[in-house]
Structure formats: structure tokens, C-alpha cells
Amino acid sequence: MSHDTYELKAEAREQVGKGSARAVRRNGKVPAVIYGDKQPPLAIALTYKDIYYKIHGGGFLTTIATIDVDGKKIQVLPKDFQLDPVKDFPVHVDFLRIGKDTQVNVDVPVHFINEDKSPGIKRGGVLNIVRHEVEFHCPANAIPEFITVDLTGADIGDSIHISAVKLPAGVKPVISDRDFTIATVAGSSAMKPETEVTAEVATPEAAPAAEEK
Q1: Cβ atoms of 86 and 93 closer than 8 Å
Q2: Any idea where the Large ribosomal subunit protein bL25 L25 domain is (predicted)?
Q3: In what order do the strands lie in the sheet with 126-129?
């Protein structure tokens, strides 16, 4: 898991709809809904301060939470949230109810290690990151914090594919029809092929033609 699990307190909402949601916000709370696990959706209201800091604290969509709804505890995974386009505060949150066998699709960050052990980077090459995140299908209670790409031995011109990454048990990439690229090691624009440099040094300037008399 990306972060430690946490608990939020919430109140059940009897009414739903735009009017009800606006009333919830006027009272300093954030409307939300819990759905999934073959149960009816449950409309709730969350404390604004609690959910604001969770959303902006990082790892919100990859961390399982427990929501205490009027004394009943429900395990959930945040699936989506909406922010006010101007003030950036939360206006609505969707939670997926977690059951024993719940599987989810989730974007997981990619971390790179051992850049100092990459011959290509040591020679001035540049790490070109194609995917900063990869979407995986996995058990909701086994979401990896991140995946690790080891750059040891990576030379200029090399591509690192998903098949080179060691994944935890039960974690599979959503894209399954190809061995997609996560990153490449490319030569920088400052690097000039040795043959080109040698040619420039070896070729003298043409002597000016002798003046005709």
C-alpha cells in the first residue's frame, strides 16, 4: 500500500441531488458517495478539513480507508474526487466499497533507481521517462506503493519495458497486449559522435585559389 490506512468520520445523507449537495457544503462538509460490492450506494457527508488534507497529502487514490458512518465502519478505496476549479477545495468524493475479493484498476507511480550504475547516463545520456505512472489491475488490499525500475547497465539507445519490472503477486498491467516502454536512455544533444568530431578535425580548409595573372 502507498500509505498507512486511515479512518474518516461521516454522516449518512438521507437526501441526494444538487440541492442537497449544496446544503451539505453550506454546512462546512463535503458530499460523497460509497458504492460497489453489490450493495446500494450510500450518500454521506464528510468533514471538510479531514478530506481536504487527505486529498492534498498524496497517495489519496491508492490508499484504503475506513469510513465510520454513524458508528458503522466501511472499508473503502477513493476512486474519484472533484475540486472547485477556482479555489481548489473538494466538492465531491466517490469511494469504492471494498469486499473480500475486490479487484481494482489503479495508477501506480514509477520510481527509478541506480542511475549512477547506468553506463549511458554516466556518459552524458538522458533518462527519457515515457510513463511516470502505470495502470495495474490488482487486489484492492494489495495496491503497491510504487514500482521500481532498475537502471543498472542501461546504455544509450536502450529501452526499459514493463517485462523488465518485478511485480508483486497478483499485480498485472492493464495493458496486456504488448510489452510497453516505460523509459529510454537517449543521447543528449550535447553529445557528438566521435567519427563526426574526428572528420571535422582531419579535414583542412580548402586553400584559396591562386590569383590569375
Answers
A1: no
A2: 8-95
A3: 126-129, 181-186, 159-161
CB 73 within 8 A of CB 46: no
Report the predicted TM-score, pTM, of the whole model to 2 decimal places. Answer: 0.74
**Which three-class secondary structure state does DSSP give residue 26?**
helix
Structural domains for the chain = 6-99 (2.40.240.10), 104-194 (2.170.120.20)
Tens-binned pLDDT, residue by residue, of the chain (213 aa): 445 789 999 999 987 888 888 888 999 999 999 999 999 999 999 999 999 999 998 889 999 999 999 999 999 999 999 999 998 899 999 999 999 889 999 999 999 999 999 999 999 999 999 999 999 999 998 899 999 999 999 999 999 999 999 999 999 999 999 999 999 999 876 655 554 444 454 455 544 544 444
Strand runs (DSSP E) across 64-174, as ranges?
A: 65-69, 72-83, 90-97, 103-113, 126-129, 133-139, 147-150, 159-161, 172-173
